[in-house]
Amino acid sequence: MTHLLDTSAFLAYYFGEPGMDRVRTLLANPEFSVGLCVVSATEFWGSLKAENQESAFENEWAACRELFVLVDVDEPAALKAAELRNAASARLPTVDSLIAACAANSQSVLVHRDPHFEAIPANLLKQEVLEV
What is the per-residue pLDDT for 1? Predict the structure, then answer.
């Protein structure tokens, strides 16, 4: 896996928001393998619920998950998340730290548009910030 999408990048792709074109480019390039952390499923459900579309979640998630390498959160990811939170210069929410940890542990580039990740030192995580 070369890239891992934060939920913010996945939602940009799904809802056709700024940053969508870059995600499409990553998915279309056979040199890249794009992952998605399983905790993004919960955040995706929350976004659909906010749009009164939560009934579509199961079908939409099933269709979207076929496009990505799904990455589970395991003990090494949890430990890396704690390390990233400890090293962060500002508050880093738990879910964001878990997603960042999955990217760091797989040596993938974290693709996002979430300012929380700016708090993580560059030597601990490769990042690509999408347009907002």
Answer: 97
